[in-house]
Amino acid sequence: MEEHNQMQEELQKGYEDEQIRVLEGLEAVRIRPGMYIGTTSSGGLHHLVYEIVDNAIDETQAGECDTILVTVNSDNSITVKDNGRGIPGGINPQVGLPTLEVVYTKLHAGGKFGDGGYKVAGGLHGVGASVTNALSEFLEVTSCHGGKKYTERFERGEVAIPFKCEGDTDDHGVTVHFKPDPTIFEVTEFDYDVLLNRMREQSFLNAGVKIILKDEREGCEQENTLHFEGGIASYVDYLNGLKSCERIHPEVIYMKIGTPSELPMAEVAIQYNDSYNETVISFANSMATIEGGMHETGFRTALTKVMNDYAKKVGILKGDDKLSGEDVREGICAVISVKLENAQFESQTKAKLGNSEMRTLVDNLITKKLSEYLEENPNTGKMILEKSLAASRAREAARKARELTRRKSVLEGSTLPGKLADCQERRTELTELYLVEGDSAGGSAKDGRDSRFQAILPLRGKVLNVEKSRLDKVYSNQSLIPIIQALGCGIGEEFDIEKLRYGKIIIMADADVDGSHIRVLLLTFFFRHMRQLIEEGHIYLAQPPLYKIHRGKIVKYAFNDAEKEKIIEELGTSAEAERYKGLGEMDPEQLWETTMDPSYRTLLRVNIQDAIRCDQLFSVLMGDQVEPRREFIEQNAKFAENLDI
User: What predicted TM-score, i.e. pTM, was given to this entire model?
Assistant: First the structure.
């Protein structure tokens, strides 16, 4: 007790008034950048661009801008230029500073907080421009407004060249030139494809706007002009075109209520394909709401009701029979976009829309417009219903298969697969499950592991390609049932991540074509039926070596040809390199020290950088159509060793 009291006294001594620090202005952004942009890795780096572009998009939504030019400069800096109204050149009466300076140095400052600046606005609650400024080595602004040209330069958020009027001009709009601060970001090299995907998305969501993206870096020179008059209907057509599947009706169903000048506004575009997966993405004020929200809830509820009512009206469903939400969404590709004043989000990064009135608005839109469409297009309605009914029958078959396997104790939480070599530790955050290709490698892994926290499950038989299979097939597949058993968290509707038994699930397959195929099959299974495991960072890929290189008693391992050549050069020409044909060729000690020892191994964590890109990737790689898969492999063969989702 006396020792405890002494500890408390010491803690109190270190926690006095002078320890309470008040962060002024942009200082807080530089000290805690993750609070504002989520991460200082590649995602946060690109977010700086999005915030400046979003300001230009706000001008577009106000009807004042139709062209945005985004340039990746030769020094890896960024220039964003729009032809909007520009930023006023006067002095802000609240703080006594130039309005332009206020926008780029004060958090929560801009035209998004009432007084008629913007009716519709994206961006991070008005902090976007100032956050980009705070996290940049330099940021230069040129604003052409009301016939005058104004400039100012900042360095790491501080004024470097004061606000100045450069004279008269016939131009209008804002040009922002900035370079991310290398002392803040882990990487400062922009990925053109990442920017292209975001700019394409914005051009779809804002029909008619032209976004030009240019890359002027040496060896990377390219340019894309993005301009889609069809808006989100074109977006759905584009998304379905990415998939390795067939559309079951030729036209996109487009519905809309309200206009940019008559808010709130909602628009929905739908087209079904013959896959077993749903793609529903939503936006609020052109910001992706990746966790959904009220607008998605309204869409899902209304879609289920409309399809059930229509099925009963045409006599396909009778009595108490009904289709579930999952049934009517199988194979759907839908984009939901709403625009509203005073959007309420449930997180700083705007992942989920909270305005309850948008649920009612979207519900009413779907109920009225989709019902009318089905009445006027009975052939399309029939094709969609047939797709939904097939999904319903498969869901019932899956339920029966699940109950059958449960009666056999296959899916009970207390039952573990016979081939599983479990670990002693029971705390999930400390445990690892290796999914190992083949009994031979599984045997070596069992003998070489640390049984305190590492569990081994040899894969049994051929892994099912779930991209071509509904859930009922999963429950009867002997390669996947042991995995479901071992993880303990269920799949589909029964998935519960709280029941997960292992903190790391590590796929360990041979470093060859067959091993790559097994990895993709397992990743497809996790992405389609246990996506949360990937989203929360539980899935890893083991990196076994390709070569064993030895000279006398000196033994080293190489994971690629370049490493092999480097090691041979270090050891001398008398060194011999032996290529492993598979994991089964390694004895337990070799497997432990190269692939399983936490002190020396290399694990790749599987992340979902872009859910739409992932959906396309798995659809192309594992779908029925050969030609898209062949084209993808030809275009990406040189990147095969670094393929990430």
Answer: 0.74
